[in-house]
Amino acid sequence: MDETELGTVGAAHLAAFQRVVREGGFSRAAFALGIGQPAVSARIRALEETVGGPLFTRGRRVALTPLGESFLPYARRALEVLGEGVEVARLAQVGKRGRVTLGALGSLAGGLVGPALAALIVEHPEIDVVAKSGDHERIVELLWDGIVELGLVAWPIRDAFAAELAPLAVLREPVVLVAHPDHPLGRRARAGVTRDDVARLARPLYRLRWWLQHHPELERLADRAGAHAEVSMEAARYLCGRGVGAGFFTSTLVADDLAAGRLVAVTIRDLAPLRRDSALVRRARGLPMSPAAGKLAAALVAQAKHLGLSAAPRRSRARK
Q1: pLDDT, average across residues 63-78
Q2: In CATH, what is the architecture of 3-93?
Q3: Is 187 helix (H, G, I), strand (E, B) or coil?
Q4: Which residues pair with 252 in a beta bridge?
Q5: Is it true that domain 174-273 has CATH number 3.40.190.10?
Q6: What is the pLDDT of residues 76-89, one digit of tens each?
Q7: Can the peptide bond before residue 204 be classed as cis, meaning omega within 30 degrees of 0?
């Protein structure tokens, strides 16, 4: 049976078939469906033409043929799936059911996205969630290809795709120098250090890109340090936690380590505070945001505020 033949089988045909089976006759099925018997007969004939044989024996008593018996469970399953789909769509329309897809910067996946998803799932267990993490370029690709509906990306964006993204909220978080408490910089954390101290004592200073490009101040500092390493954020976090080297991290990524005392934040007296901006975005020219996506966006903004990040809603488009 090809797609053209399948297209001739509709829900009305399957409903008529199932009703004839249930009622035991064409007349009673027609009465139950609220249509005339000729309409029921026509639907059954069309269905029989599609499956390639009679589904019922006609006569004083209507009964299923072997073909009809083999087809019945599939007809019931198709009607059940269709009914479930209609119910899911109806619930999604009123925000009680749906599916939401999110792509997020890896640095935000734990402290921000994880708790927000937990809150959403506890309150709305019927919502299906798909979350992916990666670097900025990967998340932008997922948004561009329509694989994710929402994205957490570095902000602002100044490339050709910027006009295609609408920011829902802009998040600002500190970027802090961290080290193990027993590291030479960690032992001076409370009193504070200078940029010369960082260049001399980091051994090595991890070169991490929290922005679309490396921050110029940190580039200069890395050049002065001489010995620096460019590794992944998780590798740098692991090494710092073992007392090897120091690095600048977004506060969200190392919040648990700082709270537990595994790492300490080191104040640099002669360096202005650093910030990393990110944004919760969606395609500006896409379909209206689904109710499920709206609930996840609200959960993300609530968690951002809980973490002390500014999370002002935005309604204008990104600028080039």
Answers
A1: 90
A2: Orthogonal Bundle (1.10)
A3: helix
A4: none
A5: yes
A6: 878 877 876 676 56
A7: yes
